[in-house]
């Protein structure tokens, strides 16, 4: 009897967007208009590549970025929730599927001591070049028309579950915790016994309720959360059952 917890990162584990938070390192804490306006829908990773070049050109170094990123606040109740999951690892496998990047997520989890809570992190690979610039790449290639070019979370989840099955691990229930539009694709992959937990007032919640109104609701149960304490209450019920 094991449960799989799937977390988004930005606006779910942390209460901000890690990619926009890094702008605090820029001169005057903002980006030039032409850079800001260069974003094209579905191509966020390329846009962030240009942001990192701009920061590098302006002499922003790794240690300054790290200091800035580790000041991001966690979502209300999240520190307690991750502590609770860490204490009950024999019941929960826990993964992150995020459109952030490996460097940011590693820094933030490490600073807070939460690395051990997560079994795997699936996100865009990032690294510092020998010139000290942060570079980011696409997580994978996929053919899903609904998702950004660099990441289909449904594909990540499906491949993870297939790999676990090969190892002889199957889950009683999948709990998917997220907030964004790119979390809808994996939520639509969930089965009747699974549960989607969209963050209250965010895009994922709105998209799920639009689907229900158009009479094509998601198969799984839906439980909205506003604080991570809501998630913890649900997990405590699961354990009791």
UniProtKB/TrEMBL annotation:
Similarity-based family: Belongs to the HAD-like hydrolase superfamily. PHOSPHO family.
Active site per UniProt: 8 (nucleophile), 10 (proton donor)
Keywords assigned by UniProt, alphabetized: Hydrolase, Magnesium, Metal-binding
Domain of life: Eukaryota
Keyword set includes Cell membrane: no
Name of the protein this chain belongs to: PHOP2 phosphatase
Cofactor(s) essential for the protein: Mg(2+)
Record: residues binding substrate: 19, 99
An MF annotation (GO) of this entry: phosphatase activity
Chain positions recorded as Mg(2+) binding sites: 8, 10, 179
PANTHER family from the UniProt entry: PHOSPHATASE, ORPHAN 1, 2, PYRIDOXAL PHOSPHATE PHOSPHATASE PHOSPHO2
InterPro entries membership: HAD-like_sf, HAD_hydro_PyrdxlP_Pase-like, HAD_sf, Pase_PHOSPHO-typ
């Amino acid at each position: 009897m094991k449960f799989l917890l799937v977390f988004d990162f930005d606006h779910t584990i942390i209460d901000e967007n890690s990619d926009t938070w890094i702008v605090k390192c820029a001169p005057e804490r903002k980006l030039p208009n032409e850079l800001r306006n260069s974003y094209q829908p579905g191509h966020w990773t390329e846009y962030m590549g240009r942001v990192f070049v701009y920061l590098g050109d302006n002499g922003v170094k790794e240690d300054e970025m790290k200091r800035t990123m580790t000041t991001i606040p966690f979502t209300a109740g999240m520190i307690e929730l991750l502590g609770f999951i860490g204490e009950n690892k024999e019941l929960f496998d826990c993964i992150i599927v995020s459109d952030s990047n490996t460097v940011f997520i590693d820094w933030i989890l490490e600073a807070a001591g939460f690395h051990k809570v997560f079994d795997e992190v699936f996100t865009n690979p990032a690294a510092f070049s020998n010139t000290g610039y942060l570079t980011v790449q696409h997580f994978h290639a996929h053919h899903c028309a609904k998702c950004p070019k660099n990441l289909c979370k449904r594909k990540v989840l499906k491949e993870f579950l297939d790999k676990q099955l090969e190892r002889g691990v199957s889950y009683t229930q999948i709990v998917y915790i997220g907030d964004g539009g790119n979390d809808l694709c994996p939520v639509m992959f969930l089965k009747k016994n699974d549960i989607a937990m969209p963050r209250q007032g965010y895009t994922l919640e709105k998209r799920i309720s639009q689907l229900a109104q158009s009479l094509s609701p998601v198969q799984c149960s839906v439980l909205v959360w506003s604080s991570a304490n809501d998630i913890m209450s649900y997990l405590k019920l699961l354990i009791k059952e």
